[in-house]
Amino acid sequence: MDLPLPFLLIFLVFLPSSAMPQRNISLGSSITATRNGSVWESSSGDFAFGFKEITDGAFLLAVWFNKIHEKTVVWWANSGNLVQRGSKVQVTTDGRLVLSEPDGQQISIAVAAGNNVAYAAMLDTGNFVLASENAVNLWQSFDQPTDTFLPTQQFIKDSRLLTRFSSDNYTNGRFKFILQEDGNLVIYTTEYPLDSVTSSRNAYWASDTVGSGYQLMFNKSGIIYLIAQNKTILKTISSDTTSTENFYHRAVLDFDGVFRHYVYPKAGRLSSGEWQEAWSVSTYIPSNICTAITEDVGSGACGFNSLCQQGDDQRPKCQCPHGYSFSDPNNEMSDCKQDFEPQSCIKNSHDKDNLFDFYEMKNTDWPLSDYEQFGSVNEDWCRDICFGDCFCAVAIFRDGKCRKKKLPLSNGRIDSSTGGKALIKYRVNNDTLSPGVENVSSNPKDSDDSTLIVAGAVLLGSSVLLNCLFLIYSYLKKRKSKTVQPLATAPGMNLQRFTYEEMEKATNGFKEEIGKGDFATVYKGSIQFENKIVVAVKKLDKVAEADKEFKNDVSAIGRTNHKNLVQLLGFCKEGPHQLLVYEFMCNGSLADFLFRKSRPRWYQRMQIAFGTARGLCYMHEECSTQIIHCDIKPQNILLDDSFTAKIGDFGLAKLLKTDQTRTITNIRGIKGYVAPEWFKSMPITAKVDVYSFGVLLLELICCRRNFEQEAEDANIVLTDWAFDCYQDGNFEVLVEDDEEAKNDIERVKRFVMIAICCIQDDPSTRPTMKKVTQMLEGAFEVPSPPDVSSFITGSSHSIYTSCY
Q1: Is the bond leading into 763 cis (omega within 30 degrees of zero)?
Q2: Which of 67, 182, 319, 688 has the fewest Cβ atoms within 10 Å of its own Cβ atom?
Q3: What are the pLDDT digits (tens) for 251-291?
Q4: Could you give the C-alpha distances from 481 to 296, 485, 554, 625, in angstroms and in order?
């Protein structure tokens, strides 16, 4: 029977989008990452799926607005990790979406339920789908949101948005937007670098709909609202008068932690001259993130020691207080570090009263950083009490009260509602400037011992230094970074060349020796970049070759900074004098940190594991010339002022040319961390570092050395004990005195399984460091490891494929 015309029109208006014309992508289709390469567009061309070049030769697999100049990304795959030119994404014949890298490694981006996938499609809603023959979406990007919420997208309980790290870095950031199971829509700070949120975190914005919130809607009229299960509107989050017919809409949890609703005029609106070609903010929450976040843990809206101020454009601006600078100059949301040597707590120290002063800032505070407070005092008294306290970094004077604060400072803000003033202590005479916070010891001898340990760790030389040093220079000269990741950059991205006279002055005539090796001596010094910083100056005592290429090779190192590698800042080559200037690592080595009497926090140990893995992954897989460290152990993992792990001591490193995958070399490294192939005359590959990392990971989990003579007989060798515990399913015993780890036992289990995969005797069965990093971060499921003894006993090779 024919339908009446009005009814037919209504029917057409509400026709499901899946029934509208679309460009189906057949099984077996693929696209390759190249500059200006092909993409899969939606039928209108509004959206595209493909590889977006983020930096030269590095691509993000993503969905973006395709008709606007900005090509704004709304969804991305592969946890935001960039891939190199030549990578390929394919809709496989069995209905999966698979990313393949040039080295042959494959990553499953999407796996649909069942085996009924008939095609893929980029829809005009911005949704990328794998669909059946009858147009049922078996997998869709809308169900796996990143940081963006689009009109018609379903946002149900447990759905979440997670910020990117920065504007051009798509790895996970510090903020999460989630509709909780209890019905409350909230925004949290996360336990970065994890994306989890614990009970210790307080939401800095909430819908207050506990028990009633059911679904967040974003309709075609540009309204975002929260409904109950009976469809009643509980709360309107954003209401914009511009419809989706004439404007593009997106709601984003931006990397600064603010949830913003953006609109962008389509071509018709632009031609009328009513709107500019740009995204404009319709609404945002919270109204002032600088004052909204007040956490007992974490840094707040900006980094530690930083200050947040709402700008005229309603965006938060992060800044460092007087005497401080960003630890990463390229990221204003990074922590702020002191640019001066902190006040000594040692009695009869050389610090004089006139070396320090206060910088005043009105309406400024770091709430919750107090460690002592006084009432009914005046400002001069407040100054004096902080002045004489070596722990006092800032004093807040407000309403006749004085509050002393020590580092690190958190939740910093500048706002008219704060009142009072901050008295920020800084050193006037800055001849002994330091890049970070002093780790003050209550025992002067402990402090001296710690300095010697740091110096020994920073000393990158060894008995084979001369054999390997210039190989490393040659490698680093050719190496290029392929990804955009947050860097803990030292001041000045390029190496600085010093004269020998400058080095003599910087080290006070090479007076303070802090370490010595077979071919080099290390001295403490201070040098001037944008600010003066304390450095470790290595003076090469015996250099017999490569004089001609020294300058060029050292210059190349300055272009290879990575946040998890110890940085070379400068050099001196003048006649017989050859010196290298390294960043000074003020928190010593991992061995000093991990094996002390007081156990480090579980969260800190996890961060160190992540950082070390990322550093090794960078060396192995993200460089044009692969570098194998060959000596990964706790003594060679150094910790900066924020306890970020950095790999040092490259004296044993081995370099491979682009057409090499392995090398032959003599046995090296420390027993217990050395891979079995060293002793079997087998070619050496990057898998030796994977083995050593596996041992190191177990030490981080258990807070004990790999070999402990005092332990029970069955537990003397940590790797054997851990494998026994894994076979028995008894992971709690490995962390029995560690309540934090026991409360996170599933992660403990996963980390132990990863470690066992790493210490397989057969190197071909160990995972790559890239896969290890992804398993640590939860991007890949950890396989059940095979028996570690099976390689020795000659079992078949097939059982090892599960770890690889």
Answers
A1: no
A2: 182
A3: 999 999 999 999 999 887 666 666 778 899 999 999 999 99
A4: 37, 9, 17, 11
Q: How many CB atoms lie within 10 A of CB 221?
A: 14
Domain range 18-143, CATH architecture: Orthogonal Prism (2.90)
Question: Which residue(s) pair with 325 in the sheet?
Answer: 337
Q: Given the structure tokens 């959206």, which residue do they identify? A: 47
The pLDDT of residue 202 is 84
Alpha-carbon gap, residue 637 to 566, rounded angstroms: 9
Q: Which of 46, 631, 649, 762 is catalytic?
A: 631
Beta bridge partners of 396: 403, 422
pLDDT in tens, 311-357: 888 899 999 999 999 988 888 899 999 999 888 887 555 554 458 89
Cβ atoms within 10 Å, residue 576: 9
- Read off the tokens for 220: 């075609």
Binding-site annotation: residue ranges for ATP: 539
DSSP 565: B
Superfamily of domain 444-583: Phosphorylase Kinase; domain 1 (3.30.200.20)
What's the confidence (pLDDT) of residue 13? 37
What does DSSP assign to residue 302? S
- Angle formed by the axes of helices 687-702 and 718-728, to 10°? 70
Beta carbons of 717 and 690 less than 8 angstroms apart: no
Find the largest Cα–Cα distance for the chain: 101
The values of phi and psi at residue 263, to 5°, are -130, 150
Cβ contact 72:63 at 8 Å = no
Residue 687 to residue 768: CA distance in whole angstroms: 7
* The two structure tokens encoding residue 22: 């679309």
| Cα(671)–Cα(426) distance, integer angstroms | 46
Distances (CA, A) of 51 to 133, 593, 691, 772: 27, 42, 34, 24
The CATH code of the domain at 148-286 is 2.90.10.10
* Bind-site residues: 539
CA distances from 123 to 20, 44, 356, 416 (A): 9, 9, 63, 47
b/e 625-664 (16+ beta carbons within 10 angstroms → b): bbbbbbbbbbbbbbbbbbbbbbbbbbbbbbbbeeeeebee
Given this model, what pLDDT does residue 151 score?
Answer: 95
Q: Could you tell me which residue, 149 or 198, shows the higher pLDDT?
A: 149
The pairing of beta strand 247-253 with beta strand 148-149: antiparallel
**Exposure on the CB side of residue 216, measured as CA atoms within 13 A:** 27
Residues 6+ apart with CB under 8 A from 127: 137, 140, 141, 142, 150, 153
- 631 catalytic per annotation: yes
Report the DSSP beta bridge partners of residue 422.
361, 396
Structure tokens at 758: 């790493």
In the CATH hierarchy, which fold is given to the domain comprising 598-802?
A: Transferase(Phosphotransferase); domain 1 (1.10.510)
